[in-house]
Amino acid sequence: MPTLRSQRGFIMALALAVAVVMGLMLMKAGPNVIMEVQRENESELIFRGEAIAAALKVYAAKTGRYPTNLDEVMKLRPRILRQNYKDPMTRDGEWEFITQVQPGASGNTAGLPIVGVRSKSNALGIHRYQNKEDPRDWTFSADQNLLGASAPEDPGKARGLPKAGRGTAAPAPKE
């Protein structure tokens, strides 16, 4: 029987050594996993932000005004946004809205026309987007001429908010 007890102790010591080695390997791989998760979240942020900006642009073209919340965009048929996307960089998923007009002294944007979104995340970025590194500085806007967002390259091609009730005239046929 003494040999059986010594074998049990050896197996226990071997299992403990394997657990320690695995723990050390996980500690080394942990930062890589965290960076990969953040990289994926940033890519998702860019995808979702651009999708929302495009939907806001289409909404304004169809209705002649910008929405006051993202639920209005979801109600438009046919659907122009796949789903009401959440901010992947924050726990609560809430976006910071970029509005067509400056909010009042309170900073409350409720009821103001939304032209874009940005993340509320304070994380340092891995990606570089719009020549900015921090995800909080990335703006996803339907109208690039508002609130300090970058201006279009050719101002002659810039279009403002469509006028309600006005259609665009077709070009005259060439003779």
Protein architecture, described:
- The chain has 175 residues and is mainly alpha-helical.
- The protein has a domain of 121 residues.
- Helix content is 39%, strand content 6%.
- It has 2 helices and 3 strands; from the N terminus they run ααβββ.
- It has a 3-stranded antiparallel sheet with strand order 1-2-3, covered by helices on one side.
- The longest helix has 62 residues.
- The chain is elongated and about 85 Å long.
Task: Compose a concise summary of this entry.
The chain has 175 residues and is mostly helical.
Number of strands: 3
Strand order of the largest sheet: 1-2-3
Output the helix-strand order.
HHEEE
Oligomer: single chain
Mean residue pLDDT: 80
Q: N-to-C terminal Cα separation, in Å? A: 109 Å
The helix count comes to 2
The percent range for helix content is: 25-40%
**Spans of at least 5 consecutive residues with low confidence:** 147-173
Strand content range: 5-15%
Determine Rg (CA atoms, Å).
Answer: 26 Å
Supply the helix-strand structural class. mainly alpha
Any idea what the shape is? elongated
Largest sheet: 3 strands, antiparallel
Q: What's the SSE blueprint?
A:
Elements: H1 2-63, H2 70-75, E1 96-99, E2 114-118, E3 140-141
Antiparallel strand pairs: 1-2, 2-3
